[in-house]
Give the backbone structure.
Amino acid sequence: MDDKKIYTQLLHWFPELEPRKIPKKKYRRNFQNFLEWIAAEKSGNSYRSYLMKIDRNVYSENGLECSAILHDHHVDIQAVQTIIRKRAKPLFEHFEKHKEVIGRYYNVHDQVYDIIFEEILNAAKTRKFEMLLIYAEHFYWLVVPNEDSKIEKFCKLFEKQFKGEEVLIEHYAIFDCSRST
């Protein structure tokens, strides 16, 4: 397998990464090396990144402020964060109110992650981008151009490349489950 393909696709999507050397062959299948290769760079007073990490304990630390794509396409990051907070607030209130009954059976953070991912995807779609979600020790996300065949190929290659490390990726989508009456 040509294990350079995920790197070359990322370089195609994000030309700003061009100066970075693709890791040597023996390091390409190591997810930690991948994270180091695509790591955020300091730009003035802020960081620019193409791969964002979500802090599992602090939902507001979701990487939106660092997203090079969202910044470059003038997405109002604070408005997205406000929507996330407004949607998450009733979940936390409900959980606090009923913690004694549902506490150990209900993970409120999973619900909040769904909100975060939905709002990031909504923001990306307004600029004709899609979102990829990586499941590893942490959640990571990236916004890529809306090119379905390239996204599908990238996801397959990515999973093959890191399958030994149990790292998964998905082309994130919001499913609207209709209720039957």
